[in-house]
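Sorry to interrupt, but I need a hand with the structure work. Leave the record below and I will have a look:
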Amino acid sequence: MIPRELIGTAEVPGGPPLRLIRHGRDFIIMLDRNELMSSRMSGSEVALGQMTCQRLKAKSPRLLIGGYGMGFTLRAVLADVGEGARVDVAELVPGIIEWARGPLVELTDGCLDDARVTLELADVGAVMGSNPSSYDAIMLDVDNGPDGLTREGNDGLYTARGLDRARRALRPGGVLAVWSAGPDPAFTKRLKLAGFAVDEVRTRARENGKGPMHTIWFATSS
């Protein structure tokens, strides 16, 4: 049996710490006993970026990614958008970025140094609130679903008020994409009540089409 090795710990403002674990050639980010993300199960994070880009209408879009994680969504977006695109990344946990430039540097593959990328060590909710009518798409992958798992403060992202803030940060026809480990009918209803047209997609956790099913909501503003 391959042992798990603790590589580092990152403090989460207002929440319990995250742990970076190495398991053979794979990396896992854990919160308590919960696996938040794994380098072996990156398919749905890649799909979040790819499927969002497929829904873009602007030729030179501006996008916001909430939660860097292991960078799979960011790299997928950069591969799909042109040189005129701008991609803001809001990451609340400085340790995540330290890992990206340290033990996870091969996974990062230089994406944080791409000229199209602006990194903000900030709460994605605050970034949305400070940028009205600015984004063609917003991608949220900061929890295991539409609730504040990593910290209670994230709950506000998924409330009626939080969804209204996201809608106001989008340009007309913009897309709010939210990743989740599973379905949540109540959240689907809240998205519709917030004025979004909702497309709920189920996708496999692994890029080879295997693993558990994850959920992504693509909510289009009017």
Remarks:
- The chain has one domain: 41-220.
